[in-house]
Design a protein that fits this description.
It is a single chain. The protein is mainly alpha-helical. The chain has one domain. The protein is built from 5 helices and no strands. Helix 1 runs antiparallel to helix 5. The longest helix has 28 residues.
Amino acid sequence: MNVPVNYLAVVVAAVANYLIGSLWYGVLFRNAWQKFSGVSEMKITALSVVLTLIGALLMSYVLQHALFFANQYLKTSGIGGGLMVGFFNWVGFIAPVTIGLVVYEKKSWMLWILNNAYWLISLLVMGVILSVWQ
């Protein structure tokens, strides 16, 4: 099955992910994130920006595919479809995988909540952008 991809929407959703992260970790919750993660200073380099954007592009591209299949088989679309797919990708992939931070790396639950709130909001926004722009 050929999955149509709106590459402009994929890029916009990826940039939205990056901007939300910049606002989340750079402005709104910088001090809390530093406290919970044990990082005293966040160093932003060109490499970190490039790698983060590449990751966001990959996530956005895959989310576009998940939306296509949800639209085809579940008959979802629009804002509701984007929210549903964003939520289920978060609850199925991000939330369970990041539990390892708490269980194995002995990070605090507050760090898990802070990071997962970011990922949930980001995936919801990305899902809506991709869904309404299909």
